[in-house]
Amino acid sequence: MTVVFYIAGAVALISTLLVITRRNTIHALLLLVISLLAVAVVFYTLGAPFVAALEVIVYAGAIVVLFLFTVMLLNVGRLAEGDEPGRLRGVHFLAPGILAGTLLVLLAIAIASGPSAQVGARAVGPTEVGAALYGPYAIGVELASTLLLAALIGARHLGQRQREAGFADAVSLAATPATTGPAGEPPAELAPVGAPTAGDETPPDAPGGDEPAPAEPSVRFWRKDGD
Amino acid sequence: MAHVPFEYGLYLAAALFLIGLVGVLVRRNLIFVLASIEIMLNAAGLAFVVAGSRWGHADGQIMFIFILSMAAAEVAVGLALALLFRRAFGSLDVDAASRMRG
Predict the structure, then answer these.
(1) Fewer CB within 10 A of the terminal residue: chain B, N end or C end?
(2) Cβ of A7 under 8 Å from any chain B Cβ?
(3) Using alpha carbons only, how large is chain B's radius of gyration in Å?
(4) How far B61 CA lies from chain A's nearest CA (Å)?
């Protein structure tokens, strides 16, 4: 089992290094799955089988799948490659690499200066973890459930199409050139009542044609004609 | 059971954390930034599990469970924000949001 620890650790390090250097998002996420599975093997060799199972189920099974669904929703297959023009040359890794290497040396010195010990003397199974989790750590479980509920509500709020003024308007205005006028006005006020198509271009014989037609914001969060 | 020195697990956790840190610093794609944050949280959990395993207690694993739930909450909100970001700016480049107006 000792050699399994070293092999799994090496796999975790290599695959994590590959994750942050890929251009293709899907490849990076699949390598992230490999990295998380390797860390799960490390957990198992350290005598934490319950946490190893959780790592596989929750991290590799749920969180990365959530990433993959988002990538599918965003359709970033080709976008991701043009997303970071010239970002992934080696020179861009130089300064952060030096900083991280320095920090790693400092951490290694700090870790090595402590007393040494063997790890994994005995396995701590799910029974022990569950007894502690619902015993002295029960308040932590309550707090975690509250956090998950807050994240659920927050994600649902952010994910819905926003029709009223709010965060979407602020971001939409920020993404629009400043000369386009009020972008948050509903189109029903721009065109006269009875205009055939409200929301697209103003008709050329519109009575209110003297004022400039407000340009559509370049990016919109919602369909103004309702869907 | 593996019989490895306790420090090696901490070295692995530190290296994974710093790889995630480099990812956050270098990458500009929002999906990659979120994935790097996940790597860092996972490395922190690994350090907790190693420390708990060194003393033979369950507390390290319990801290990992809390980190896991926190990471799940964070990634749910972060990916919802990524969807909004893509709709607002048309790309996932976080430099597109470097100007704060409005």
Answers:
(1) C
(2) no
(3) 17
(4) 6
